[in-house]
Amino acid sequence: MDELLRATYEAERGHFWYRGFRDFVEPLLAQAAQGVSHARILDCGCGTGANLPLLGRYGVAFGFDLTWTGLTYAAAAGHQRIACATVARAPFPDGSFDVVTSFDVLYCLEDEAERDAIGEMYRLVRPGGAVVVNVSAMEILTGDHSIFDGERRRYSRGQLGSALERAGFRVTRITHTNASIFLPMLAVRLLQRARRAGTAAVAKSDFAMPPGPVNRVLSLLLAAEARLLRLVDLPVGSSILCLARKPALHDATS
Asked: Which of 47, 123, 128, 242 counts the most CB atoms within 10 A of its CB?
């Protein structure tokens, strides 16, 4: 896990994937916090804290993570509203946040822990509040990074939506992302699996920084996709992004 966090920390400031992710998630965050003054926003599994500034655009951002390595990076970056905790049991009162986020955490959890983590998000968000969740998608895209990342599953939209609805959430929007780079990613992942067949090769992260011109082109491609996502949902892509809401009290009792 420490090696993963170090690789993530080195990549997330400029790598095209992270630039694209922030472009994808920002409109959903804006929708989640719409109409709430000084929204309290919690990132469950905040890692190195790199997404806390983005969350801070829409309210007061808090985060927690189980790893001291991630929290050390977050503290060094000046983040103070952070804690060490597990996603299955967070040290905050019921309904104490307007928005709760989970970015690329759920797919690393065993089934029972995944259910507990989603249930904990439901507990933490206030009635009428929202969650924004990002997970890996499409089993065909399993590759070296899946092993390196400790991935337990890759979701379909139906699987993620059902998991959230079982906890009590109502899905507002759910879409694939990274559709624009789906074909090259598929080719790379298929090649990785072919190379690993029958070997004990050590899996490595995909998040090595590509050459500057390649990184810029892919960043522009994902930025264009993010503009398209403001209008339509996409049927394929390496990730699934979801906005869901906890029913307001009057909805829950009606």
From this structure: 47
